[in-house]
Every structure is written in C-alpha cells, then in structure tokens.
C-alpha cells in the first residue's frame, strides 16, 4: 500500500437520480471519510441537479457536479471530465448504480499501490431487491448475516461469499491481461497513470469495452492489475441493459490494441474540448488541515 493517498471518487450518472442518491448516501456512511466525490453527468435533466444539490447540503465530504450536454452516450468523455475536475492522487471510478459497502473506501485505500490499478467487484441485485433499496426498505449498509443469507437464498443477490468475507491483500496481482472481472463500474487508478495513457478513449462508440481498453493500455504502459474481489464489492442495482449495437466493434478495437501494444487514447484527457459545466463546486478539500 502507498501511504494515505488523496482519494477522488468519480461517479458517472445519466437521468437516474434515485439510484445516484442511494450511491452517494452510501458514501456518507463510509468508515473512511477522507475523500471527495465528483458526479460525472452525461447530460441528465433538472431532477439530477436538484438531487445533487440536496445531497451536497448534508454531505460529510466535498461534492462537485460536472455536467455535459446530452448528445448521446458519451460515458468516456463524462468520466474524463470528472477526472479533470478531481484533485486526488488516486481516482476511484464508479457507476451511478453501484452502492458501496461501508468499508469500500477503506479497502480501496488498503489495496492502492504504486504500479498497480485495482479492478473491483460487484454483487448483482435483482429487480425486487433494487426496488426495496430505492424505496428505503433495504439498508445495504447495515444488513446482518440473516439478511445476507436471505438475499442469496431468495435469488435477490448473485453472490454470497463476497457478502460474508473480506480477504487480505495477498495473491491479487495479475501478470497477464484477462477480460475476467474488468468492470468499469468499479476501478481504482492512480491519477498519474491515467494521465500517462490519456485517460478513457472517447473514440469508442456506444456501450461496451471502453473499460477493458483502459486496462489494456495501462498494462502496455507497465501498470499491473490487482483483483479487488472480496474487498471492494459494490451492490449493483438492477436496470434494463443498454443497447449494445457497438459492442462487437468495440471489442475488436480492444483486441487490436492488445496486439499492437497501444498505450494512448486516440481522444482523451489531453485533447482540447468544449468545457464541461461545473454545476456545483465545493471548496478546496485538500487545503484543509
């Protein structure tokens, strides 16, 4: 572990304020509150803005809302803008439908190590459990053993062992690239490494595999992957799947870059773009003692 890195959590969102609220409220109850939140908004409407405003008023951590116009699916661009707006040394990339466990920040901080990035893990909730969470009838931050067993036995969560145990930082390093457990919804990456490979590649069209592309390029740049399973789990709320019209072509692009040992995003953090709108901005968190 690299001692006490400054952490920024970049949460991507698009027009689902109910889920975003559940995610952010999960961060209010972390065992480690030494971090900032950047909401990377891909063009949501007024309801999301009002949601973030309400949350910011009672937040124990700084929150910034970075918005871009709704011109279609532009997740990579939104994430890059969130990364630009952040101020931490270590960036956690999270989707706005993934609720962190109480020790999420604590565990990511423990796994953070120079020369490595962390691919986190997720526990899938079904529609019924997700509805109870959003209605405030299921508190994922304080569920006990009985509730965990009930979730799994009812088929409302797809994993049980990860709900029960947290494993130490032993044997997590991966020496080769693998698609397994690469989920852009939950990653921890050093800011310097993101800048070195030019961030997420905005040339990817539509849904799919921009996260694997990032991991491939980091690997070619000398950054190894650590598996965050049994330490960094998040609860993934059920929703209808996005259209996957470009998934096959995006996958082919990743495979080509794997062969060509590409490190740089075609269009990423360094390219000149129109500015994102910072809807709400916090004071400089890191200037505090």
Question: Could you explain how this protein is built, in words?
Answer:
GO terms for molecular function: transferase activity. It comes from Massilia horti. This is Glycosyltransferase. The protein has 289 residues and is an alpha/beta fold. It has a single domain, classed as Alpha-Beta Complex (Spore Coat Polysaccharide Biosynthesis Protein SpsA, Chain A). The strands form two sheets. Strands 8-10-6-9-4-1-2-3-12 form a nine-stranded mixed β-sheet, sandwiched between helices. It has a three-stranded mixed β-sheet with strand order 5-11-7. Helix 1 runs parallel beside helix 2 and helix 9 runs parallel beside helix 10.
Give the helix tally: 10
**How does the overall form come out from the CA principal axes?**
globular
- Report strand order across the widest sheet: 8-10-6-9-4-1-2-3-12
Number of domains: 1
Give the CATH level 1 class: Alpha Beta
Mind summarizing the main beta sheet?
9 strands, mixed
What would the average pLDDT be, to the nearest integer? Answer: 90
CATH topology: Spore Coat Polysaccharide Biosynthesis Protein SpsA, Chain A
Percent of residues in beta strands?
Answer: 15-25%
- CA radius of gyration is 18 Å
Q: Write down the secondary-structure element order.
A: EHEHEHEEHEEHHHEEHHEEHE
Uncertain stretches of 5 or more adjacent residues: 283-289
What percent of the residues sit in helical stretches (DSSP H or I)? 25-40%
């Amino acid at each position: 572990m690299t001692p006490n890195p400054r952490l920024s959590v970049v949460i991507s969102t698009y027009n689902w304020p109910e889920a975003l609220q559940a995610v952010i409220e999960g961060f209010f109850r972390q065992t480690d509150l030494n971090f900032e939140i950047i909401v990377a908004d891909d063009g949501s409407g007024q309801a999301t803005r009002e949601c973030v405003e309400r949350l910011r008023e009672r937040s124990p951590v700084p929150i910034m809302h970075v918005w871009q116009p709704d011109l279609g699916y532009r997740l990579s661009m939104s994430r890059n803008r969130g990364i630009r707006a952040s101020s931490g040394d270590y960036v956690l990339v999270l989707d706005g439908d993934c609720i962190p466990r109480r020790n999420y920040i604590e565990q990511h901080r423990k796994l953070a190590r120079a020369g490595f990035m962390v691919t986190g893990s997720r526990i899938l909730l079904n529609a019924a459990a997700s509805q109870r969470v959003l209605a405030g009838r299921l508190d994922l931050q304080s569920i006990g053993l009985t509730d965990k067993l009930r979730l799994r036995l009812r088929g409302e969560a797809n994993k049980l062992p990860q709900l029960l145990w947290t494993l130490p930082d032993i044997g997590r390093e991966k020496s080769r690239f693998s698609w397994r457990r690469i989920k852009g919804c939950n990653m921890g990456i050093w800011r310097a490494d993101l800048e070195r490979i030019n961030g997420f590649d905005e040339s990817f069209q539509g849904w799919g595999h921009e996260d694997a592309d990032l991991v491939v390029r980091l690997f070619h740049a000398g950054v190894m992957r650590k598996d965050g399973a049994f330490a960094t789990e998040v609860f993934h709320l059920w929703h209808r799947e996005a259209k996957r019209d470009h998934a096959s072509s995006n996958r082919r692009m990743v495979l080509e870059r794997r062969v060509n040992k590409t490190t740089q995003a075609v269009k990423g953090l360094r390219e000149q773009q129109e500015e994102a709108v910072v809807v709400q901005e916090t004071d400089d968190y890191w200037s505090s003692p």
